[in-house]
């Protein structure tokens, strides 16, 4: 992805002592960065606030993470915003989240235009409230001709459901005679996933210290480098992001083979 290095330097001016943009190899920025945004509720509870305030604060972190991804020159930035299991939360919290998704999307459209960001959604949007769906569709339409970073939001997303859905689609193709069951490849599976056409994540960041995948991108994360930070999502900023990319660049990625460095 084309990167404006001058803007990147300005964005990362005022670095804390332990951190500098010069620690990064700008030729080895991960192509696809994905984040499990976790810890909004705890962030709010620790401050004596309602959990919903944590989600509201999380929107600011998300905006900054989108901008950071663009500045760094990431090609695809994806986030886990709402899982198929999140419907089990109190109804009030679910409603607030759906409302927040819709409002945020409208509010951030100018940013997506300014930064040439193309929206994409991962998940089953059919089950979402009408207004949220309408706004999502508007976001897709308005950014369809953007040629910059892809920002993929996983909403009502569950990886097992996604894989089962791909299996059904492949079974239909086979039953219709369009596909030989013995010739089904990994690429055939991939092209039926919500992420069809996107590169697999190179770096997965999870905030708030939890060491689980929570039904997120199980297929796509096969060779992804994981970075877990104790920082809660509302406190995750451009510096935390830089730390994660720096850690990523110190990993030796072997993809099951031998070391290449
Ligand atoms: C996890 O924190 C966060 C979520 C389930 C929702 C993520 C939503 C946002 C960051 C709001 C903005 C998003 C968009 C797409 C506009 P948690 O509630 O599980 O925190 P906890 O583990 O501390 O309870």
TrEMBL record:
Cofactor info, note text: Binds 2 magnesium ions per subunit.
Family annotation (SUPFAM superfamilies): Undecaprenyl diphosphate synthase
EC number: 2.5.1.-
Active-site residues, Swiss-Prot/TrEMBL: 38, 86
InterPro entries on file: UPP_synth-like (IPR001441), UPP_synth-like_CS (IPR018520), UPP_synth-like_sf (IPR036424)
Top-level taxon: Bacteria
KW Transferase (keyword) present: yes
PROSITE patterns: UPP_SYNTHASE (PS01066)
Function comment: Catalyzes the condensation of isopentenyl diphosphate (IPP) with allylic pyrophosphates generating different type of terpenoids.
Oligomeric form and interacting partners: Homodimer.
Binding residue positions for substrate: 39-43, 51, 55, 83-85, 87, 89, 206, 212-214
Record organism: Thermophilibacter gallinarum
Family: Belongs to the UPP synthase family.
Cofactor list: Mg(2+)
GO molecular function: transferase activity
Coiled-coil segments on the chain, per record: none
Protein name: Isoprenyl transferase
Keywords assigned: Magnesium, Metal-binding, Transferase
Protein residues bound to Mg(2+): 38, 225
């Amino acid at each position: 992805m084309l990167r404006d290095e001058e803007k990147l330097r300005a964005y990362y001016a005022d670095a804390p002592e332990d951190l500098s943009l010069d620690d990064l190899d700008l030729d080895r920025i991960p192509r696809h960065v994905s984040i499990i945004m976790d810890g909004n509720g705890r962030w709010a509870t620790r401050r004596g606030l309602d959990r919903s305030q944590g989600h509201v604060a999380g929107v600011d972190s998300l905006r900054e993470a989108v901008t950071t991804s663009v500045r760094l020159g990431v090609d695809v930035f994806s986030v886990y915003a709402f899982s198929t299991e999140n419907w089990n939360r109190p109804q009030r919290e679910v409603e607030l989240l759906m409302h927040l998704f819709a409002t945020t999307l409208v509010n951030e459209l100018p940013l997506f235009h300014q930064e040439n960001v193309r929206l994409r959604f991962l998940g089953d949007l059919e089950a979402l409230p009408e207004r949220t769906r309408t706004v999502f569709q508007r976001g897709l339409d308005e950014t369809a001709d953007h040629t910059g970073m892809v920002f993929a939001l996983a909403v009502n997303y569950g990886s097992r459901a996604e894989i089962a859905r791909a299996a059904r689609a492949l079974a239909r193709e086979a039953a219709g005679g369009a596909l030989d069951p013995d010739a089904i490849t990994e690429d055939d599976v991939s092209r039926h996933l919500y992420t069809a056409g996107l590169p697999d994540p190179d770096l997965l960041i999870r905030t708030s210290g939890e060491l689980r995948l929570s039904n997120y991108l199980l297929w796509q994360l096969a060779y992804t480098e994981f970075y877990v930070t104790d920082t809660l999502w509302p406190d995750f900023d451009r510096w935390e992001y830089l730390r994660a990319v720096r850690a990523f660049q110190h990993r030796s990625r072997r993809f099951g083979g031998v070391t290449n460095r």
